[in-house]
Amino acid sequence: MPLWVFFLMVLALSGGCHSSSHSPTLRKPRYADAIFTNSYRKVLGQLSARKLLQDIMSRQQTERNQEQGAKVWLGRQVDSMWEDPKQMALESILAAMSQKLSRNSQG
């Protein structure tokens, strides 16, 4: 049995047998019940708001991670696309320089 039910029963039984004394006694449990219900609703509302904020923040973080991953992937694709021509150009420059050096050393 929940504690608040026990509390209500004790208040109701301790009020006496007169009908005039039942009215104030019944008001106290109703008032206590209303306080409990309002507090409980407030806590549930706060928990719902917290969960909603956490979900929103989680989605934003996921989107940021996906955007960053896409940028990194795109950067790698661009790098690999330009890497081969750059490497071939560098090799041809080095080959031309080595030919010049060999001609200068020979003649």
From TrEMBL:
Listed InterPro entries: Glucagon_GIP_secretin_VIP (IPR000532), VIP/GHRH-like (IPR046963)
Keywords: Secreted, Signal
Family, similarity comment: Belongs to the glucagon family.
Protein name, entry field: Somatoliberin
Function: GRF is released by the hypothalamus and acts on the adenohypophyse to stimulate the secretion of growth hormone.
Subcellular location: Secreted
Superkingdom, natural source: Eukaryota
Signal peptide interval: 1-19
PROSITE patterns: GLUCAGON
Domain Glucagon / GIP / secretin / VIP family: 31-53
